Fold this protein.
Amino acid sequence: QITLKESGPTLVKPTQTLTLTCTFSGFSLSSSGVGVGWIRQPPGKALDWLAVIYWDDDKRYNSFLNSRLTVTKDTPNNQVVLTMTNMDPVDTATYYCAHRFCSGGCFDAFDIWGQGTMVTVSS
Amino acid sequence: QSALTQPASVSGSPGQSITISCTGSSNDVGGYNYVSWYQQHPGRAPKLMIYDVRYRPSGVSNRFSGSKSGNTASLTISGLQAEDEADYYCSSFTRNSSYVFGTGTKVTVL
């Protein structure tokens, strides 16, 4: 059974750096094709894709946020870390990590999501 | 990458069929058969309903179907049920090997 869980601060101040950890089980980020993505959702608004990291350490970022995002993996400990610099109140959102869908091959979709963690940016 | 365009809301009566559109460009929806659809109930994480334009993951009802024509993808829900009332988001792989979500559609069962 695949599970993911996000953890990190619930409140950050403007200009600070946000660090979120996704701890997962039921799969390995060393397996070919596997990936973990990050998606956020401001209150009452749409999903916003942020980043993905793959088994081979390939990383892709939202082009609008590219300069502020970094994603890394800790394969032995089954964790993925997202950092976002220079936080602003508009970054207030629920942040999700999600598993890349794999079934007889891997696909460009995310099938298992964490419960999400709400991050508020305020002074 | 700008968000894909979806209608803000779609409604239908129980048993009816509804279709949600998702319009992008040749850099995303039109350029790849990697469109997925997600259902999200209030306060819950999204659930994958369709991947690669038209395929359902195991466990998803066959009342949900997907298609694509040019730069527009569509999700059709047949035999609408009360439990289908939720927000729906499309997503596409993009030219720069990233992803983009749609603006979201609220489905109301009358």
